[in-house]
Amino acid sequence: MQVAASLGLVMGEGSVLGAVLFNDVAIAHESYYRPPVKARCIDGFLGVGAECVPIAQLGGLAGLVDLQIELHINGVHRQTTVLAELLRDAATLLADVSEFMTLRPGDVLMLGSDCLADGTRPLVHPGDTVEITAPGFAPTLHSFTQEVAA
What we know:
Blueprint: E1 5-11, E2 16-24, H1 37-40, E3 46-48, E4 53-54, H2 60-63, E5 68-73, E6 76-82, H3 90-98, E7 108-111, E8 129-133, E9 140-143
Antiparallel strand pairs: 1-2, 1-7, 2-3, 2-4, 5-6, 5-8, 8-9
């Protein structure tokens, strides 16, 4: 399985209510250019952090620019997502998406990068534990087990 540290903006009534850490899980696949719908859109494949941190507590959307999200597998650092390095900051992405999509309370807009510098994603195996951390958030932990055949 592939994993990636990401941040979700949780929508409130007419604005961003807060943010939550995500573990964006996917089945490893070869195709980079075809939408990997079958590899990513599976029940339980988006590990959601336990808390939604109020956006004001994070310094608003502008405060997210300095945020760095760390991903560790079994205690070993594997990925850093630096939001300042995104092509569009949170406010710009939110404005761009809002031009063609209505975001309602409870909707989540994900931002971050799922790729490492070499274009790959960190891999996990049964028995591995992923920890995702960022300043202002409680750590998000997910453990992986072997799927039991039906």
